[in-house]
Amino acid sequence: MPLMKLKDEELVVESKLLPDIDSIGEIEETQSFIGRKRAVRSLIFGLDMEKSGYNIFVVGLSGTGRKTFVKHFVSEYSQKKPVPSDVAYVMDFEDPQRAKVIFLPSGRGIDFKKDMEKLVENLTEKISKVFEGEDYKVRRKEIDEEFEAEQERYTRELIEKAQKLGYLIKLTATGVNYYPLKDGKVIKEEEYINLSDEEKKFYEENERKVQLLIDAAVENVRKLESVYKERVRDLNRYALLFATEEFFSAIENKYPYSDVKEYIHKIKEDIIDKVTSTKKLQELEYYFRRAYSVNLIVDNSGLNTAPVVFEDTPTYHNLFGKIEYIEREGMLYTDFTMIRPGSIHKANGGYLILDARELLVHPFVWDRLKKVLFSGQIEVENIDTAYGYSTIATLKTEPVPLKLKVILVGTPEIYELLYEYDPDFEKLFKIKVELDWELDTTVENVKDLISFIADYTKENEILPAKKSALNKVLWYSMRLSGDRTKLSMKLGSIIDLLEEANFFAQKRNSKFIEYTDVHQALTEREDRLKLIVEKYDDMFRKEDLIIDVSGKVVGQVNGLTVVNFGDFEFGLPVRITAKTYLGSSGILDIQREADLSGQIHSKAVMILTGYLGSKYARKVPFSIGVSISFEQVYGYVEGDSASLAEVLAIISAISKIPLKQSIAVTGSINQHGHIQPVGGVTEKVEGFYRICKLKGLTGNQGVIIPRANIRNLVLSDEIIEAIKAGQFHIWTADDVDEAIELMTDKPAGVMTKNYEYPRGTVNYHVVQALKRSHDMAEGKTSRVRKKREHK
Do residues 733 and 743 touch, judged by C-beta distance below 8 A? Predict the structure, then answer.
């Protein structure tokens, strides 16, 4: 195909793609999701599959609306799922170092918590009245008096029996003491020594009997005390149950659930124990408020569907909960009331959405999440306790069964990393949902994009956009995709543009977003980011960076590069030079020799060697040395998009035919000399145009690009106008020879069957230069040989 010059009409975005409307306000059919059919099918399958391990990983590029899509879709899907139970922790009365879990129907947990608080208030008041009542005091007095009477009887009998055996009994706070008596008086130690052997024998024999009597009396008193306590307990039980039964019955009737009934039964038993053992009512009240409270960790009273939770900061405690402590006099204390839930508790019974990158950057979170998903239950454990870094005694929580669908959102790189290096990943996340980053530019897809914009503008009270503004937004979508046949799915960037255009429209007091507002938003955004471009342009203006945009030079061509600063990328021309010399044949890549060349660029240079050899060294060896260099480039050079420019510079250097400096070149070539598409072609064209404008447009300047890159050109209005006015040009080529002819104004020449080129063509001059170099090399070798023979 001959070289083609593009016309301005070939580069504009066709307005016929847009619906026939005056403004977006006329769009009635709106939608939240576009271009997600494959993703929606995969996501529905993952959500419907209730088997373990079928959690979901949503893969997509940043800026494609991954999180928004997932949150909106899962929220809609969750509406057909039931609301899960409320979850509360209460005291385990059998083991206060454990917390027992209670499940209640959704919405009942908060009521139960409030009712238990009222119950505690009623208990305190009622119990005080019970023990202050005359009936209770009379009955308690009877029991106390009977106990004291029996206790005195046992004591009196012990004293009388001991006296008959010649011993005095004394009761002290530390126990029962006994002393020998004689004539009604206690025998002193020195008196006891002077007793006769017969008297001593009498006291020794009776001492054993007194000891037996004391032991029997003590045992009887113990039994008496046990009976006494049991009678007091029964009295308290009867009095308390009678006084409080109405409260407990109301709770049990209102909450007829097995968990609640068991809990209330434990409270009844505990009340009797504590009332019996605690004397002060104030202490009882404090205990009741602490022990009988309900720690409601999951309250679903505000939900109508299964919960959908997005945790944007998935730290260990945010995700899995924690147990808090309070400090008292240098000691740490905790109980079930200080259990704090995590997002996984709140999402249980529904869906938990997490950013995969955020999940992986927080220590221990990924490991714990896997353990939780494998076990199917969740316990609240602090990170130091769970991983054995703490020796502090802590609370144990009863596990909560887990029924949860976890949805991770991340980039392809993170997905591949986890899949490659973590064997557990594919066991737990069996569903991969891929989000496309672009759509075909069809009338139907454009309609969907406009419907999405209509939905967003109506939902967020943005001014309606005119058709001209929508056309510019459509241009921007193509610009983001880098292809006029594709629409970008970086919907976040499109929304940002609409928001900024809306800002400028409101400043004009307009009722619509028009073309001028979108254009201003794009211009203002570029101005905020292009300081570095202005610095480069200043260096070109002062010729600190040297680029010729007119004239012809041998072995020199303007290549095109793209500079990326993260949030902004732009094109820069770069001078590529080639020099030839006799010596070792082949191409010397100066960038590679200086370790400033990447592997792809090194491969491209090797391809050049193969291409040049097959094209020019069929009859004569490639016996000339060539060096190529990117002048004034001190950074790393990577990629193969400069290979067309490099081969032109080499051909010019060998043939001594000068190349136009008014035309810049980009394109990759293969060993057949076919020109292949490259990336960043729009930025490259705009970069060279910018320098030509800076140095002065002549009407002869332009760029050669691969023909396959035509669809990738999404140029600014200014360049399209310059092309229309004939001030700037874009040529497309499929073959190196097409580029040669434009750059030299000479025919390239087609190889004949004898591997020769027509006289006067560029390729002919290259072959002739190679022959001369070969002859010179051979002649020099011959002269050296003759000198050696002469000697």
Answer: no
Q: Phi and psi of 319, rounded to 5°?
A: -90, -45
Q: Per-residue pLDDT for 372 more than 90?
A: yes
pLDDT at residue 420 in the model: 94
Q: Which residue has the tokens 């390729």?
A: 763
**DSSP-assigned states of every residue in 713-730:** ----HHHHHHHHTTSSEE
238 token code pair: 């009867």
Listed in sequence order, the DSSP H helices in 484-514 are 491-507
C-alpha distances in Å from residue 273, one per residue of 24, 141, 266, 294, 504? 74, 20, 11, 20, 74
* CATH number of the 536-754 domain: 3.30.230.10
The residue among 70, 101, 33 whose CA lies nearest residue 351 is 70
CATH (residue range 66-83+303-434): 3.40.50.300
Mean pLDDT lowest for which of 222-236, 278-292, 540-554, 713-727?
278-292
- CB-based burial label for 543 (10 Å; 0-12, 13-18, 19+): exposed
Question: The dihedral of CA 520, 521, 522, 525: what is its sign?
Answer: positive
pLDDT tens-place string over residues 168-192: 888 877 778 888 887 778 888 777 7
pLDDT band (50, 70, 90) for residue 147 = confident
3-class SS of residue 564: strand
Is residue 598 scored above 60 in pLDDT? yes
The β-bridge relationship of strands 4-5 and 675-676 is unpaired
Q: Which of 55, 40, 60, 11 is nearest to 489 (CA)?
A: 60
- Minimal CA–CA distance to 151: which of 228, 210, 211? 228
Q: Which of 42, 106, 641, 662 is catalytic?
A: 641
The residues pairing with 322 across neighbouring beta strands, listed in sequence order, are 340
Rounded Cα gap, residues 506 and 499, in angstroms: 11
Encode pLDDT of 334-357 as tens digits: 889 999 999 999 999 999 999 999
- Domain positions in the chain: 14-31+439-529, 66-83+303-434, 112-254+268-290, 536-754
- H-helix or E-strand containing 28? none
Range 14-31+439-529 classified under CATH 1.10.8.60: yes
pLDDT in tens, 457-469: 888 889 999 999 9
Confidence of residue 288 (pLDDT cuts 50, 70, 90): confident
Q: Is the predicted pLDDT of residue 1 greater than 60, yes or no?
A: no
Dihedral, CA of residue 439, residue 444, residue 449 and residue 450, to nearest 10: 160
Among this protein's residues, is 390 annotated catalytic? no
Query: Which pLDDT belongs to residue 4?
Result: 83
Number of Cβ within a 10 Å radius of residue 79? 10
Marked catalytic residue, from 67, 467, 490, 684: 684
- Give how far Cα 478 sits from Cα of 130, 440, 445, Å: 82, 10, 12
Mean pLDDT across the chain, nearest whole number?
Answer: 88
Neighbours of 85 (CB within 10 A): 21
641 is catalytic: yes
Kindly report the number of other CB atoms within 10 A of residue 138's CB atom. 9
Please list the alpha-helical segments (H only) found in 133-196.
Answer: 134-164, 189-193
